[in-house]
Amino acid sequence: MKNTILRLSELNLVSKSALVSKSSRALGAALLSSSLIVGAGFTSSAIASDLTEQAGSGVRVGGGALIKPKYEGSDEYDVYGFPVIIPDFSSNSQFSFFKKYVEINGADDVRFKLLNQGGLSAGPLAGYTFGREEDDGDKLAGLGDVDEGLIVGGFIAYSFDVNSSKLTLSTSYHQQVTGDEDGYLLKFSAGVERPLNERLKIKAKVGTTYADEEYFQTNFGVTAQQSLNSRANLAAFDTDAGFKDVFVSLGTDLQLSQSWKLFANVKYSRLLGDAEDSPVIETENQFTGLVGLTYKFDWR
User: pTM (2 decimals)?
Assistant: First the structure.
């Protein structure tokens, strides 16, 4: 099934059909959006609302919208609409182990908690990165595409309660293992979740990302050959390993009723170092927004 992508460019919305060459990236955006909502569905029992527990296990069906930069460093944005179909397990369900051992933070960050005891969790992670195409921006013309590929890695995190809030400190390693591209990321973050009442929960996170030299050169560098091919006449630009960005996000889950739930999240990232200085970027300020609405059907 082909998705319809609405492109936001210079504050004008223009609809177009998804191209075959970009279908996996459109799917990736939908997966990223859905995974953020799934992550909200797999909340810990300590902060799950009484309404959700009373309803028991079921499936949530709905839809949402995601707005994100066309590529890392772009000042133009794509808007994606996507369907949502996710499980919602009660604490007494035979499938409730998913809440304890699976955590989904994004398309490139699906975590499997082989160790999960006393607030400490650790294990492998997997995911997917969706690359970049040279027609995503004028500055990319002639530079060639950046391959999509499978991500594998690992993580360690520690969570603890402070009053009514849950704080989590996390470090994760992400390595692309398929495609022609190479490089890894190290992500460091601190997050907090706090229920304001039975229906409303807020979430906030701050963090930073470290990238190795291969990742930097692939995504922000310009080789001598790329400089010759560049239709934007970009100069060659060599990169080194270092911190790629800092970010902050704020989200909310609102239980509108026993069946209806609203999700929203906004994230701001600031590119740093060679990423900020790269000739391929259009702005160092990056914004991502998400909103979704679901209805829960109980399993009888």
Answer: 0.81
